[in-house]
Write a structure and sequence with these properties.
Length: 105
């Protein structure tokens, strides 16, 4: 039995509002978060392929190798309550503010 990788829609349903992208250059390691809307990806895109669907470029070192993970920083643990803290702080922010260190093309 094989497991299909999670899609962006699956992740959205579990709480993260976007992805956390880190430059893979060990001397750089700049990072930023992008909400799913800013990436403009379809809901059926497998999460592991996000880095190949969008060509990220580190604005600090110029590197193209990145590590992408769900941005769980805005999600609270089960049982910790509901409320505005569960909304992403990036929701509605201009893309230029989200892309302070990394951009995609």
């Amino acid at each position: 039995m094989t497991c299909e990788p999670p899609t962006t829609a699956h992740l959205k349903g579990h709480g993260p509002a976007g992805v956390f992208v880190v430059c893979a250059n060990a001397a750089c390691m700049h990072a930023t978060a992008f909400n799913f809307g800013a990436l403009g990806l379809a809901d059926d895109v497998p999460f592991p392929s996000i880095a190949s669907c969008r060509r990220f470029l580190c604005t600090q070192c110029g590197g193209r190798a990145v590590n992408v993970s769900p941005d769980w920083r805005t999600r609270r643990a089960v049982g910790m309550g509901d409320g505005p803290h569960e909304r992403s702080r990036y929701e509605g922010a201009p893309v230029s503010l989200q892309a302070m260190y990394l951009k995609f093309s």
